[in-house]
Design goal:
- The structure is a single chain.
- This protein has 311 residues and is an alpha/beta fold.
- It folds into two domains: 200 residues, Aldolase class I (TIM Barrel); 77 residues, no CATH class.
- It is built from 14 helices and eleven strands.
- The strands form two sheets. It has an eight-stranded parallel sheet with strand order 1-9-8-6-5-4-3-2. A three-stranded antiparallel sheet has the order 7-11-10, with no helix packed on it.
- Strand 5, helix 6 and strand 6 form a beta-alpha-beta unit.
């Protein structure tokens, strides 16, 4: 399968794994790359030296292309970027920040840069900043999200209409049917997060993986828009949050309740009561924890089968 994305990243299939915090360690990234997609290490939940360790282990675990997702709102960003360069990373996905800040620095080092956006406006800003590809992520996505609340299948054709560089669709894609639909709407490839969070190689806690496969339609919601919008599974922490909203809280009160390390507590340590459980709406279609290679094979088989049925 050849698209502008497979050519850009030199991968077999136009499937990119989301660089999710507390989920996307080197085992997941290497497994996706070995299966023909593009694996991404999620730097957002890693101290600089932990990132270096994961990069080195990933290089030993695959000889295929892989990259790093870097949310630019996190501290130690300069140290993280320098480690990426020192370790010879060839692909970086940036998010949660102005793409102009680091794109030139990375491209001067020969690194391919993609940037994650949630609107046409920011897609155009990313293109103007010189990125090589844009990930347009819809409202359905898990984790931190855009404020516009534009759905993926509305966003993709609108971005496609304005963009000239390769386009990757993200948010609410976990199946071959979803992948085909996104590409029919104009995407050159897809980024998949939630489905890989519930894989055997994911670094998420087993208890969190089991919650994912038991999540039903309507069990997730976008909240904390006053701080940074995040899609969460409705658990006791979420209910605490809703109780606080009934009191018309200040931003500081919301920040105090959230505290620090909520996502780590829930997703990495398996605290299903007090932790943040970030996942996309598509979790309602995820029913089993499987190896990455099997997941990718199933996506591709369904993609090809459905595509043939319309030819």
């Amino acid at each position: 399968m050849t698209t502008r994305i497979t050519k850009l990243f030199k991968i077999q299939f136009p499937i990119i794994q989301g660089g999710m915090i507390w989920v996307s360690g080197y085992k997941l990234a290497a497994a996706v790359s070995n299966a023909g997609g593009l694996g991404l290490i999620g730097a957002g939940s890693m101290y600089p030296e932990v990132l270096r360790e994961h990069l080195q282990k990933c290089k030993r675990s695959t000889d295929k292309p892989f990259g790093v997702n870097v949310p630019m709102l996190y501290p130690n960003i300069e140290e993280i970027m320098n480690i990426i360069v020192e370790e010879g990373v060839k692909i970086v996905f940036t998010s949660a920040g102005n793409p102009k800040t680091w794109t030139s620095f990375l491209k001067d080092k020969g690194i391919i840069v993609a940037h994650v956006v949630s609107s046409v406006k920011f897609a155009l800003k990313a293109q103007e900043a010189g990125v090589d590809a844009v990930v347009a992520e819809g409202f359905e996505a898990g984790g931190h999200n855009g404020r516009e609340e534009t759905t993926t299948f509305t966003l993709i054709p609108m971005v496609k209409e304005k963009l000239t560089i390769p386009l990757i669709a993200a948010g609410g894609i976990a199946t071959g049917r979803g992948m085909l639909a996104a590409m029919v709407l104009g995407a050159d490839g897809v980024q998949i997060g939630s489905r890989f969070a519930a894989s055997e190689e994911s670094s998420a806690h087993q208890a969190f993986k089991e919650v994912i496969v038991n999540t039903q339609e309507g069990d997730t919601i976008l909240t904390l828009k006053e701080l940074a919008p995040v899609r969460l599974i409705k658990n006791p922490f979420y209910q605490q949050l809703q109780d606080l909203y009934q009191q018309h809280p200040t931003t500081e009160q919301l920040r105090q309740l959230l505290g620090r390390g909520r996502a780590k507590k829930g997703m990495f340590e398996g605290d299903l009561i007090e932790g943040e459980l970030e996942i996309g709406q598509i979790a309602g279609l995820i029913h089993e924890i499987k190896p990455v290679a099997e997941i990718i094979n199933e996506i591709l088989e369904e993609f090809n089968s459905v595509k043939r049925s319309f030819c």
